[in-house]
# Entry
Amino acid sequence: MIRSFLIVCLMVFTTAVVSAQTRFFTKTGTISFKAGTPVEDIDGVNKSVTSVIDISTGQIEFAVLIKGFEFKRGLMQEHFNENYMESDKYPKAIFKGKIEDLSKINFKKDGTYKALVKGTLEIHNVKKDVEVVGTIKVTEGAISSEASFKILLEDYKIEIPGAVKDKISPTVEIQTACDYKALK
# Structure
């Protein structure tokens, strides 16, 4: 009886350890964007992005605090938060999605793999379906990801006043980069 109990405990413990190693996490991911025009550079970066990836299901999520974006000039950051993103009202941007071609990625073998990710991006309290091709890199069991994609400001109800329309692009290029660690 004791032996059976120990075997069951060992199986439960082993299952918990194995399942814990399928989820990877970061709090130090980076999201940057370019929203400028030839008239003015408008680049923001946030290096406190939270992301989780489950390599067994392909589920991937990102969350970023809007006020965490930094700019070259403080006034630009202030206008970004108060006038455009209304970050007191809409404090976060969130992406929830899934790697569609998960079977093409071998998380047990070092390499760089293309990944098609489909999901929902929520910015400014507006949710839109997006599809992004990114890269997942496996190096000695460590996982990193990178992606670049574009969004339209009008899709997320972000209005640009006429006085600065020549300085702010209606299309924003977004880059993501994350180095994940296994959840333990």
About this structure: Residues 23-182 form a domain with the Lipocalin fold (CATH 2.40.128.110). The longest strand covers residues 168-182.
